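Translate structure to sequence.
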């Protein structure tokens, strides 16, 4: 059976910094947008931020894509955000919810959103942070609020209640969308959909697993697993 990921009631965004992967995924109908960040860029060896971004934007012209500021000072974040905003109409600017000292970015968010900048406020982990961001956003300007559900789960806490509470908080903002971030496994994509999240952003490698395994027959997967173990034992030359 072929399963169409476009049928899921959540928009799937591709998360990564591999240029070839970005372009390939952008062309797939079930991918509704893209995200990246400085950590992902560093992992693939990107040295020039703007050159990389503009190369991506030569291809990614219609679907939303988020680029993140990388300063730790709010005035410089603002300058970078306004420069990135002018790169292309489909660009969202990622602003971290705090600086590295824990100071709230609410005033910067209020300033930029009030100026019509489309923001992706990132690295949120609590409902209190979502409420603070909600109060700072312009209700007439599109925005994404990225709650790192995977990092919440890393602490042993079920993220779904926080995601559902966050969704209720954001209902007052018709242009704001809740994004389930830091996906760790294919199941998280379906959890995001079940929670009612607007968006789930998925790393390229997990997107491949999602495409390969979505609704796969479990007995067939069991057989493939047995074959894998046998093949690897033969290849290792094991003998008793």
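Result:
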């Amino acid at each position: 059976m072929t399963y169409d990921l476009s049928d899921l009631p959540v928009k799937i965004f591709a998360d990564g910094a591999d240029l070839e992967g970005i372009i390939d995924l952008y062309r797939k109908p079930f991918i509704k947008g893209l995200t990246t960040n400085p950590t992902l860029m560093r992992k693939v060896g990107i040295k020039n931020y703007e050159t990389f971004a503009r190369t991506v934007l030569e291809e990614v012209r219609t679907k939303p894509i988020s680029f993140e500021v990388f300063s730790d000072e709010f005035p410089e974040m603002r300058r970078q955000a306004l420069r990135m905003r002018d790169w292309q109409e489909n660009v969202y600017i990622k602003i971290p919810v705090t600086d590295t000292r824990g100071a709230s970015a609410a005033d910067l968010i209020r300033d930029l959103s009030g100026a019509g900048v489309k923001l992706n406020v990132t690295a949120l982990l609590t409902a209190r942070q979502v409420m603070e961001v909600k109060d700072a956003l312009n209700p007439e300007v599109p925005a994404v609020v990225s709650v790192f559900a995977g990092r919440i789960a890393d602490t042993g806490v079920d993220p779904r209640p926080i995601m559902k509470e966050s969704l209720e908080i954001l209902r007052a903002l018709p242009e704001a969308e809740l994004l389930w971030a830091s996906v760790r496994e294919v199941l998280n994509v379906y959890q995001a959909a079940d929670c009612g999240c607007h968006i789930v952003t998925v790393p390229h490698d997990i997107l491949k697993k999602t495409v390969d395994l979505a609704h796969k027959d479990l007995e067939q997967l069991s057989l493939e697993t047995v074959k894998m173990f046998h093949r690897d034992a033969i290849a290792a030359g094991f003998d008793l």
